[in-house]
Design goal:
By secondary structure, the chain is α+β, with helices and mostly antiparallel strands. The chain has 16 helices and 39 strands. The longest helix has 16 residues, at 442-457.
């Protein structure tokens, strides 16, 4: 695969107009200039051929085709492809290698028979737990309907076989769906099954895909404790009636019991389908009342709707407005929107927060050459003046203008017309399969609007993002649309993102730990984060439990209540040869502490961890010990990558004993500075760093002051601020040499009181980037 250097470029025809249509331009393969780009980076599988198609399109993307005889002709269609496999490989790289969090995985198909596949993946700000949480995708594909025999459908599984999930899925599919396992081509999927459980009926596209998807979700979420990350639907085939669905799950170790989900499907043929109410009995009467107020009535599984329920004018519908209305209603009942297809999750603490939908749409015009109208629709309330922020952005950057259309209230709250959206053809001759089915810049504008809402306005989280495409009768241009749903968060947030690329040391570090990976022991790897073992997680829990002290100081934020226990759910070990080498060299030079040293309480809390500070032959002459530092999860990983910088240390919390690196021996004291990132999936998970520290000889003081010179002079290794002796609170250990501290573990934990997770304080959020301790 190579970066795209050429593209289909629109040029003027050399010959005069034919006189019938005035079409005086054409396309040809030419050099891609900056103004031709519709995204920030694009790649192609080999150089473009004269028809605009890459010369080696199947080097990475693969597909099996199958022929079906219909009305005396054989139709060739795509029966199997490796798009899901490629998607999960990229997801693994982005999450496990880069630490980004997969939020949305959205499949869509283009062309007359939906034979052009596209997959859109949205990743949000890096989170440390994303680096150790495996992902699995389940693909459901309904086979072509057969009036004589039962429809045979396929199930594909992609991803990592973590926690024996493949065997669990094998048992589920074989038992619940009478599926038969087939030989899986490793280039296409990791497991493959054939089943007759996925069925259609009637002539309106009614099927049980939603019902079966919910069964799979319930199994993965409730039986296996995996989290539902994303769900998307698609259709392909000559009649666009062959349905497929992708479900992506993540293994979050801290999940104790999965959430309840329901799926609501709006069908413009005249009904609404609801699946999953067996786990939401309390919602049944409320949903019935909601739809009956709109003159819908219950019949079998769907709710048939009155003729005016759905608004449709060409490519414009009111599905977005119906979705937001339903989301507002279910939010008041404690169910928050998860996906736009539409999936809701039981989540009372945030379900009622205001929502906003932004739709980007291209509306084809019946012209030749292909042309379209660009539109932006906004649905939702004007929370905290968000309309004004969007209006300024759309007018300034998208050349948009608000249109007050008389029918607009039927399908949105604000409507803008603009000329921002650009589409390109997929090949030189694409008219038989629909026009402009190539690149578009809707993805770029989607990310720009996400940046505006999440980072600049700062009070909104992206919940889901969904794309769709459509062709209309008599119009050969594909209609594109992108829908984003945002949830408001009171108070906003500031999240620090670390994207440090660590260069390898190039030689073995001094005295590396024997439990490190070989590449780090040899200095061939710049930095590696390793999921903690069960034994290491137990050590971390011992630290949290045995150093806990029921004492509150003024450093605990905004009257924040004290938990009665901190429960470690996961830990990450950092192997950083360069930082370790610096630490080990100082350990050799640091004078012995002498008999007056008082070891921290952490050393008695976990004997297994304490043994790592003692060498068999030399003992522990530098008084090495493990100490704690409270922070937020994202910043914790930044510190593991860069260590502490004395110039910035303590800026977000104060400097009672001078500007240094502040570490604690008590989990309660460290927790006073701990925060969560408040990013949805990992909200209410806090972080503490477990650091190796070289104590040497302490300079002991009970009173505040700037004591850095006492340490920098070389006589003392650190300052021991003994406020425990002075006022009965805590002891703090302050270091003024960056090399004296090696941050080794990031521990993620819950605050619990009386056995229940404590809700987060609304005022807690990650500090501003300039206040970070790195």
């Amino acid at each position: 695969m190579q970066e795209k250097q050429e593209d289909l470029i629109e040029v003027c025809k050399e010959e005069p107009d034919c006189g019938c249509c005035g079409y005086s331009t054409t396309v040809k393969v030419g050099k891609m200039e900056e103004h031709h780009r519709l995204c920030d980076k694009s790649y192609t599988m080999g150089p473009l051929g004269p028809d605009g198609i890459p010369t080696d399109p199947h080097k990475i993307y693969k597909a099996h085709t199958r022929g079906i005889e219909e009305w005396g002709a054989v139709e060739s269609f795509e029966a199997e492809n490796n798009m899901g496999k490629l998607t999960m490989q990229l997801a693994h790289f982005m999450t496990q290698e880069c630490g980004w969090t997969l939020q949305v995985c959205d499949a869509a198909n283009l062309g007359r028979r939906r034979c052009i596949r596209e997959q859109q993946m949205k990743f949000k700000a890096p989170h440390p737990l994303s680096m150790i949480a495996p992902l699995v995708m389940i693909e459901l594909g309904v086979g072509r309907w057969d009036p004589v025999r039962e429809t045979t459908s396929n199930i594909y599984v992609h991803g990592a076989d973590s926690d024996g999930i493949f065997e669990k899925l094998r048992s589920f599919f074989q038992t619940a769906w009478a599926a038969k396992e087939k030989d899986a081509d490793p280039g296409y999927c990791d497991m493959k099954f054939e089943t007759c459980a996925l069925q259609e009926r009637g002539f309106q596209g009614e099927n049980n895909m939603g019902q079966k998807a919910m069964e799979a979700v319930d199994f993965m979420v409730k039986k296996c404790q995996w989290s539902l990350v994303s769900r998307s639907n698609g259709c392909f085939g000559k009649s666009v009636d062959m349905r497929e669905q992708q479900l992506v799950f993540r293994k979050d170790e801290f999940i104790q019991r999965g959430s309840d989900h329901i799926i609501v499907e709006f069908r413009t043929v005249g009904y609404v389908e609801i699946t999953g109410l067996q786990d939401a009995e309390d919602l049944k009467p409320r949903l019935a009342e909601y739809f009956e107020k709109q003159e819908c009535h219950s019949y079998d599984t769907p709710y048939p709707v009155p003729s005016e329920f759905f608004f449709r004018d060409g490519y414009t519908t009111n599905l977005g407005k119906l979705t937001m209305s339903l989301a507002d209603f279910l939010g008041s009942e404690g169910a928050s929107i998860k996906e736009h297809q539409v999936t809701f999750t039981r989540s009372p603490e945030k379900a009622s927060a205001p929502l906003l939908m932004i739709e980007l749409r291209t509306i084809p015009l019946p012209n030749f050459p292909p042309s379209w109208h660009s539109a932006i629709q906004i649905t939702g309330s004007d929370t905290n003046g968000v309309y004004g922020h969007l209006d300024r952005f759309i007018r300034k950057y998208m050349s948009g203008r608000e249109i007050r259309h008389p029918d607009a209230a039927s399908y949105c709250d604000k409507y803008y017309s603009c000329n921002a959206f650009r589409l390109k053809p997929a090949s030189f001759r694409e008219s038989c399969m629909g026009m402009v089915n190539g690149e578009s810049d809707l993805g770029k504008w989607t990310m720009r609007l996400c940046d505006l809402m999440v980072d600049h306005v700062g009070e909104w989280d992206l919940v889901t993002c969904n794309s769709d495409n459509a062709e209309g009768y008599g119009i050969n241009t594909t209609a594109r649309e992108m829908q984003m749903i945002f949830r408001h968060r009171k108070g906003g947030r500031r999240v620090f993102m670390s994207a440090a690329q660590v260069e390898p040391l190039g030689r073995p570090p001094l005295q590396p730990p024997g439990y490190w990976n070989e590449g780090c022991q040899m200095g061939e790897v710049g930095h590696k984060l390793i999921p903690g073992t069960e034994e290491e997680l137990q050590w971390m829990q011992e630290l949290l439990d045995k150093t806990f002290k029921s004492k509150v100081t003024r450093d605990r934020k905004d009257g924040q209540a004290l938990a009665d226990r901190f429960v470690a759910v996961q830990c990450i070990r950092s192997e950083h040869p360069a930082i370790w080498d610096r630490f080990a060299k100082r350990r050799q030079l640091l004078p012995a502490g002498g008999s007056e040293v008082s070891l921290p309480k952490t050393m008695a809390a976990s004997s297994g961890l304490a043994k790592r500070c003692v060498e068999v032959s030399a003992g522990n002459p530098s008084n090495e010990a493990y100490l704690l530092h409270g922070t937020n999860p994202t910043s914790a990983v930044a510190i593991l990558s860069n260590s502490f910088t004395v110039d910035f240390a303590g800026k977000s919390a104060g400097t009672m004993f001078g500007p240094g690196i502040y570490l604690a021996e008590s989990s309660t004291k460290a927790d006073e500075y701990a925060q969560d990132d408040a990013t949805g999936d990992y909200a209410e998970l806090y972080a503490v760093l477990v650091c190796r520290a070289l104590l040497g000889k302490p300079y002991v003081t009970e009173e505040p002051g700037d004591f850095r010179e006492q340490v920098l002079s070389g006589e003392f290794g650190h300052v021991l601020g003994d406020r425990e002796k002075a006022v009965g609170t805590f002891r703090e250990f302050i270091f003024f040499h960056e090399a004296a501290v090696y941050p080794e573990y990031a521990v993620f934990y819950r605050r619990e009181k009386d056995g229940r997770v404590m809700p987060r304080n609304e005022s807690e959020m990650a500090p501003r980037p300039m206040e970070m301790e790195v």
